[in-house]
Amino acid sequence: MTQRLRDIADKLYKPPADGIRQVFALSRGEAEKLPRQPSIAVICIMAPERPPASLDGFEHLLRLSFADVDSLNPNLSKRARASLVHAFTADQARAIRSFVEALPREIESIVVHCEGGYSRSCAIVVALHHLYQYRIDFQHLSQANASVICLMLAT
Fold it and tell me: With contact defined as beta carbons under 8 Å apart, do 123 and 140 qualify?
């Protein structure tokens, strides 16, 4: 287990005393190693060509599939342009918001994971912070996918 994952696991076991939900961005591999606690909800983001992550045991789990492509970038590569058909959608943004808004109060932490844990998941974490004022760790969110943030905040 990496030091970062140990630090996050510690925070999951000791949520903030002020009752403000915390949200974390992780990689698929890190998320699969998390303790199955009833106080944790998970948003699983997979690439369309990847199999589902092994997340059995989480009662509150939302699974989505979309490509890691920044549709706002005017200089997309040919490969990225081909992925636009699998880009994040307004329906997926609404699904995330509905999922989060329906979570019971007992959920103290939300973990968002994608394959690498640095683009799509970070974008969702940043958007949830802006929408709901959840506690986040800004230092690990610098590569968040801008188009995902914009769509999350626009819906």
Answer: no
